[in-house]
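Quick start: read one record
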Amino acid sequence: MRNAEPAPDARHNIANEVAAGRDALIAMTQRLVAASSPNPPGDVTQAADVAATLLAEIDGARVEWFETAPGIVNLVAMIDSGRPGKRLVFNGHLDTFPLGEDLGWTVSPLGGTLRDGKLYGRGVSDMKGGIAASLVATQVLARHRNAWSGEIVVTLAGDEENMGSLGSRWLLENISHAKGDAMISGDVGSPLVVRFGEKGLCWIEIDATGQPAHGAHVHKGVNAIDRLRTALEGLKRLEALPVNAPPAVTAAIMAAKSVSEPLSGAGEADTLQRITVNIGTISGGVSPNLVPSHARAAADIRLPVGVTLDEVEAALRRELGAIDGVTWRVIEKYPPGFTPPHHEIVRHTVAAATEILGRAPVVNMRVGASDARLYRMFGVPSVVFGCTPFGMGGPDEYILVDELVRVAQVHALAALAFLSDSEEGTT
């Protein structure tokens, strides 16, 4: 049984109410930015205190606090409509990149400076602005419970920059109501692109051993770096593995190219559709005139939709398994994942963005990782819709306030449409 769509005036009122709260949205973001939460070391207690206070101000919110390790805090807030329906999750992460005080900031990394329509601070794009957008959207929707059914859940994780094992993954494994029928994340991106999937990852370390000798007597030794070079050549051959992506994913990537690449860099569409191997570190040897007895490298392998982790690990065994003196191990991995581009949460987000922006955004995969990958791994259809990042990880990180307001409006309208779409759900 389907509910009636929310009345146009309800959508209009909610969008206008979010926009009218522009100053409050800015202030909320500034409060979150001022609460230092760099990872490493990963202590997000200050940011969690601020976020918990903001969540408690939402009408009817029930807020839970979970500390999964010293300083790593995860928050879950539930807002019930009072009627059965679906559960929509807003997810965000509280931790940020290190402050980088030595990078040459012209404003305070924790100051939340507002200047010329730009809001500055460490983590303002990744992703304290996105969190504030979701909180304002939830706050307004809580005041309009008669317009939707089911439940809104806000999950704020304390451990995203470190792969999320103590953050969103922990919540999904241990807190049943942290899951839902769909999830919206305000992580970095662009209001012009609705991200519906992400590449997978496989990090490996390769060790090579040899026989030490004097550099003038190479006939008496075995060079570990030479063995490592052979292994790395084999590793790079993984980039030629075939990819069998669903046609809908390929079509979406190509259709998004003209909009997405100017934002994310030329070549993004190609990168999204193939395996990439980045050899990130190499070490070995102690002197030019000695044959090295040990060498090591670490690499980042990214998997597009259409290639499995099993296929990549089988290829690693083929390429590296027969090289004398070489061993390797996987140190981190997760599969590629996506929500079908025509899933209702994608459609509702696109429709809401079209309404707010006055133009339709494209839908595309995401090159980098976010906690949306974890939600998809647990069967929760998910999208990422956030502000454009400027200076992320560097000095003078900032977002555009106009974009921040629009992101909050889209979060509110997409959630409203999703929670008005059907009575069936988890709640």
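DSSP finds twelve helices and 18 strands in the chain.
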